[in-house]
Amino acid sequence: MHHRTVKAALAATALAAVLALSACTAAGTATATPDASSAATEGAPGTGGSAVGFIMVGPRDDFGYNQAVYEAAQVVGESYPDLEILTAENVPEDDTAVATMEQMIDRGAKVIFATSYGHLDAATKVAAAHPDVVVVQQGNTIEGAPLANMGTYFGTVYEPMYLAGIAAGEATESNKLGYVYAFPIPQTIANINAFQRGAASVNPDVETVTVSTSSWCDPGAQKDAASSLLSQGVDVITQHQDCTKTVIDATEAAGAFTVGYHADASELAPQGWLTGAVWDWAPLYGQIVDNITAGEFVGGPFNANYRVGYKTGTNPFVLADFGTSVSEDTKAAIAEAQAWLGTEDGSPFVGPVLDQDGATVVPDGVIPTYDEVDGMNYFVDGVIGSLAN
Amino acid sequence: MSIVVDVLSGGVRGGTSILYAGVGETVSERAGVINLGTEGAMLAGALSAYMVASHTGNPWAGALAGAAAGGAISSVHAVLVVKRKANQFASGLAVLFLSLGLTSLFGSSYVGKTITPFTVWEVPLLGDLPFIGPILFQQDPLVYLSYLVVPLVWYVLFRTRAGLLVRTAGARSEALTVHGYSVARIRMGAVITGGFLAGLGGAHLSIAYTNSWFENMVAGRGFIAVALVIFASWSPLKVFGGAYLFGAALSLGPALQARGFEINQFALHVIPFVLTLVVLAVLGRRTISAAPAELKRVFENAPVDP
After folding, report:
1. Which residues contact B305 (CB under 8 A, 6 or more apart)?
2. Structural domain spans, chain A
3. What is the chain A residue with the closest CA to B117?
4. What is the ipTM of this complex?
5. What is the pTM of this model?
6. Which domains, and CATH codes, for chain B?
7. Do B219 and A221 touch (CB under 8 A)?
8. In this structure, what are the phi and psi dihedrals at residue B19, rounded to the nearest 5 degrees?
9. Which CATH fold would you assign to the domain A158-278+317-384?
C-alpha cells in the first residue's frame, strides 16, 4: 500500500516537472520573438505594431457577446493582412487579464481591445505601463480624463430594441409583451423602456411585463420566467440574458413570438421569430484600428468614452433579419423609425416621457443625451414590474 | 391559471432535478458517504444527456447517458473516499470542479444546439382532475418516472436485503465486516447509484426542463439537494416534499412578477435560500439524531474506518 502511494507520488512529481518545463519552453519562445518592426518604429501610441489583440471574458462560441467580438476580430484581420490578430478567450476580469495583454504586447501588439465590462481596471494598468500601446475597452466608462493611450467605446443597443418593439407591438394580440432580464443595470433598463416605447408607438394599449432572474445565465430560472409570462397571456417575449436559448425555446414551443438579443437565433424559432438587436462590431473595430494606426488616436474621438448610435455613426448594434410573420407594412414602419432615429429630432425617449407613476421624467420635446439614457434608473409608463432599489 | 396552480406545477417541474439528486444523495449518505460532488454529477448528467439526445434524436437515450455519466463521475469520488480514504468533503468538491471543467470544455460546442427534448405529456383522466391534474399529471415523462423511482428507492432501502446492507454500512459497518461483507464494495455501489440518480436529475434539467445546455447550468441545485437530505432526515419519501417546496419557492418569484406584483427582485430571489436555512435551523436538532452513525463520524472529522 505504502509502496504504491510513493510510486504514485513520484509519478505525479515527474508529470508536474515535465509540465513546468514545457511551460518554460513555451514562455521562452514567446519572449524570444519580439517583432522587429515594433521596436524599429517610433511614433504615436499604437503605431508600428505587427498585431492587434482582443481579450474576451467568455468562450468565443457562446452564441452571444463573446462570439460577436471574435467574429468581428476576424473581419479586422481580413482588412489588415499585415496585422496578426491575437485573441484570448475566457480571460477573467482580474490581473490575469493584465498578464494576457502583456503577452500580446510581447508578440507585437500595439493595439489591444479589452472587450468585457470588468476588464477596465486591467486595461488601465496595461495602458499606464505601456505608453506606446493603445488599449480600448468595450462598454465600461472611464471616470475623469482618460490616459493619452486609452479609451472606451460602445453602441446604443436601445435604439434597435426600440425598433424591435415596433415589430412586437404590431405582432401582439393580447397586448402583453414579456421581458426576461437579469439585473436592473442602466443598459437593461434603457432596453426595456425603449422596447415598450417602440411597441407603444404603434399600439397604445400595449404593456411590457418584466421578470428578473437575478442571473446572467440560469436556464432553470429562465424557464420559470418564460412559463410564468406565457401563462399570463404574454404572446411576445424578449430578454436580456447572456444565454438566450432557453427562453426562445420555451416561447417557440408555446406558439408565441420571439424578439432576440445578442445574436440572430431565428433558427431556434422558425415560427415565432420577429427580429432582434444583435451585434455587428466589425465596422466600428475597423474605424478604431484605422484611427490608431494612422497615429491619430491621442485627443481623437476614441481617446474618450466614445458612444455611437444611429445619430452619430456606425452603431455596432443592428436589427436582426425579420421573421416570416413580419408584414411589409411593419418593415416599412421600422425602416421609417430607424431613419427618424438617425435625425436630429429622433430618439426613443423624446419627451414627454412618463414614468410608471405617471410623473414626467423627460419634458415635452426634450431629447435626452446618450449619457442621460445611460443613467436611466426608472421604468417608463406601460412597463409592469418594479426596480429593486 | 391561478397563481397557486402555477407555483405548485412550477414547483414539481423545477423540483424534479433536485428530487433525483436528493434521493441519490440519500442512498450515498445512508451508506455513510457524503458526496458534495452531486452538483458535478448533475452537470455531467446534464451535458451527456444533451449530447446523446442531440446525436440520437432520442431523449430516452439521453436520459440513460446522463445517468451513466453521473454514475461515472461519482465513481471517482467513490474510489478516492472508499479506497484511498480521502477526506469526503475535499474529494466531493474536487470532483465537482473536475466536472465543471470537463463539461465546460466538452460542452462548448453544444451551446445553442437544438435537440428533441422530452415534451409535456398529459396523463389521460388524471390530467383532467381539477387542481391536482395540472400540478402532477401535466408534466414530462421524467417527472412521471420520478414518481416511480423514488418509492422504489425507498422500498429497496428499507424493505430488501440489499437496502439493509447499505444502511448497515452507514450505521454500523463493523457488523458487515464481522459477517464477511465488503463495506468498501457496498459503499462504492451506493455512491455510484447516488451519482446515477443525480445524473438523471441533471438530464431532466437539460433535456426535459430547459431544453438547453450551458456551462454551469445546474447553478447550485446539487448543493440544495445535499442540504435537502438532512431536511428529509435521510428518507427518500420526504425528499419529495423538500424538493417540491424548493421548486415552488423558485417559481414563486417569476409567478408574482408576471402578475405585476411590485416586489424587490433581490428579496424574492433569496426566498428559497432563506427557506432552506429556516428549515435547517428548525429541524436541525431533531434531524441530526436521525443521521446514519458513520456519517456523524464524517462530520466530526473522525476516521470512518479505524
Report:
1. B85, B173, B183
2. 43-155+281-308, 158-278+317-384
3. A249
4. 0.87
5. 0.82
6. 3-299 (1.10.3470)
7. yes
8. -60, -50
9. Rossmann fold (3.40.50)
